[in-house]
Write a structure and sequence with these properties.
The chain has three helices and nine strands. It is of the alpha+beta class. The longest helix has 30 residues.
């Protein structure tokens, strides 16, 4: 087993007001709806259990099965891992700006994949950017849905 990590940090402005933006990004059903490759999920209070479809990349096969707990405190939204083969954590800070909202987004995803140690070394420079790309795609889908 080997852990691979991707991180994405971005600050951007959306035209929606603060309350609308915060409500959109902090809504668990909206998060679930914009999670790509979702096979199943359940929401229990502030925790979401995600099961993603099998990703088969030839030498690497992975089926994410994990939980995240979400907390909204004023204009600060954060999430932490609550178990599974994927560790996902991050935070968003919202700030009103003119008629829109500045969104400061930070997220790290770590996946635990069963591969030989020699293969893990070769995959590290590939997996990090791939995970980062997935995070960027999620942020793009969430932002587009807000418009």
């Amino acid at each position: 087993m080997a852990w691979f990590e991707g991180t994405h940090t971005d600050t951007f402005t959306v035209p929606a007001d603060l309350a609308t933006t915060r409500g959109h990004f902090a809504d668990l059903a909206t998060i679930v709806a914009h999670t790509e490759g979702l096979e199943s999920h359940s929401i229990d209070g502030d925790t979401v259990h995600f099961v993603l479809a099998l990703q088969d990349h030839g030498v690497v096969k992975f089926k994410a099965d994990y939980k995240c707990t979400y907390t909204l405190d004023g204009d600060h939204f954060k999430w932490v891992s609550a178990g599974g083969n994927t560790e996902q954590s991050g935070e968003i800070r919202f700030q009103a700006s003119g008629g829109g909202t500045v969104v400061d987004y930070k997220e790290t995803v770590k996946v635990d994949i069963e591969v030989a140690a020699v293969m893990a070394t070769m995959l590290t420079p590939i997996m990090g950017p791939m995970l980062t790309h997935e995070i960027k795609g999620f942020v793009k889908r969430m932002t587009k849905a807000l418009a």
